[in-house]
Amino acid sequence: MRSGVVIQQVKPGPGADAGLVAGDVITMLNGQVIDTVGQFEQTVEGLPADRPVPLRIVRRGSPMFIPLKLN
Q: How far apart are CA 38 and CA 43, in angstroms?
């Protein structure tokens, strides 16, 4: 399997608002490659709350970018 973090569950919040679904694989957030949950959490801590940032996911084998904005 390629690098990334597989989403197991989407709860109400920024991820759900961005359209993430279970099974999506997060591979990059705001230009940072994501290989582990720890990397994802660390990157999220440094995100700006006032503007969306690019989130690269792989959904059913197709990579795509979606904007993620923290609430």
A: 9
Q: Tell me if the pTM is above 0.85.
A: yes
Helix, strand, coil shares, percent, the chain, to 5: 20, 30, 50
CATH superfamily, region 5-68: PDZ domain (2.30.42.10)
Closest to 66 measured CA to CA, from 20, 3, 9: 20
Dump pLDDT digits (tens) for 40-58.
999 999 998 889 999 999 9
Looking at residue 12, the DSSP 8-state letter turns out to be: T
Domain boundaries, the chain: 5-68
**Can you spell out the DSSP letters for 28-61?**
EETTEE--SHHHHHHHHHT--SSS-EEEEEEETT
